Amino acid sequence: MTPSLAAGILVALRRNHSPQDPLERLTERESAILKLVGCGMTNRAIGEQLHHSEKTFKHCVTNILEKLHVRSRVEAAMLAVRGGAGRFE
C-alpha cells in the first residue's frame, strides 16, 4: 500500500468516526473559552478571568483550533457563531 493511499484511508476513517458538528468535539471548558474568544477578549483577559496563565490559555486555544480544523481565533469564533449560535450566545 502506498503512503498516499494509507493517508487517504485514515482521513476517510476519521471523517466517519468524528462528530458531524465540529463544535461537539470541544469539552465544556473549551466551549466556554471559545465563547470568550468570540466576545473579543484578549488571551491575557481570558487567562485572568479563568485564573490561568496566558501561556496555559494559549495552549488551550491551540487545542481548540486543532479540534475545529481552523487556523485562527477569528475562524474558530466565526464557526462557533455560525454553527452553534444557541450554545454561544
How would a crystallographer describe the biggest sheet?
A: none
Strand content: under 5%
**What's the CATH first level?**
Mainly Alpha
- CATH architecture call: Orthogonal Bundle
What is the radius of gyration computed over CA atoms, rounded to a whole number of angstroms? 15 Å
Structural description of this entry:
The mean pLDDT is 81. 66% of the residues lie in helices and 0% in strands. It is built from five helices and no strands. The chain has one domain: Arc Repressor Mutant, subunit A, CATH 1.10.10. With 89 residues, it is mainly alpha-helical.
What can be said about this structure in brief?
This protein has five helices and no strands. It is mainly α. Helix 3 (43-49) packs across helix 4 (54-68).
